[in-house]
Amino acid sequence: MPRRSRTATNLLVRLRTWFGLDQEALALYLGASPALIRSIETGRRTLTTNLLQALLPLMQQLPPADVPAAPLPPGMPAPEAAELDFRRRVCQQQLARFGRELAALEERGRVAGHWAQALPALQQEAAASAPATAAEAERQAWLSGWLTRQARPLPPEASTRWHLLRARVAALTAELATLAEATGGAGA
């Protein structure tokens, strides 16, 4: 038995999605059984002429498949400018705070990298001079430990935080662009 094309399946799914119907509601509209709608969508049955005729009024209301959605759905009231402006200001404050935190974390990473790069030479220099007294030996041991601590890489949590901050900055930047678009760039 030959399989039918996916066109009917796509049509039913498009109609249901556009009008917010589940299979049972579409079946009720068409006067068919939900099992028949499921069978058509899964490709086990074909779309009959009678069902196609019943779908015609709904199909005529569908926009062409390749037309992008309207910026504001029909029937949707205009947004409250004050609410959007408030959210824009909140986003700007959060973006500034996350940006500062991100910059500080990046600076900590850079400094740790500088110390790690300098550590071998600094430790070699410290070890080159033999301590003359016990106090100098103690200081040399302390200095070696201190240099090693300075050169420690940032912990994995810092890397995780850096990635999360970058994601938040990107999300807030996108949200600000969308809010500027929604308000026509007012207050941006």
Explain this structure.
The chain has about 190 residues and is mostly helical. It has 2 domains: about 5-60, 434 Repressor (Amino-terminal Domain) (Orthogonal Bundle); about 80-180. It is about 70% helix and about 0% strand. The protein has 7 helices and no strands. It has helices at about 5-20, 25-30, 35-40, 50-60, 80-130, 135-150, 155-180. GO terms for molecular function: DNA binding. It holds the Pfam family HTH_3. This is HTH cro/C1-type domain-containing protein.
Entry summary:
The chain is an all-alpha fold.
Number of domains: 2
Strand residue percentage: under 5%
Helix content: over 70%
* Shape designation: elongated
Query: Regions with pLDDT < 50 over 5+ consecutive residues?
Result: 1-5
Number of strands: 0
Cα(first) to Cα(last) distance is 61 Å
What is the count of DSSP helices, taking H or I runs of 4+ residues? 7
Largest sheet: none
Question: What is the chain-wise order of helices and strands?
Answer: HHHHHHH
Overall pLDDT level? 85
Give me the Rg, rounded. 33 Å
Structural class: mainly alpha
Please give the structural blueprint.
Blueprint: H1 7-19, H2 23-30, H3 34-42, H4 49-59, H5 81-128, H6 134-150, H7 156-182
Helix pairs in contact: 1-3, 2-3, 5-6, 5-7
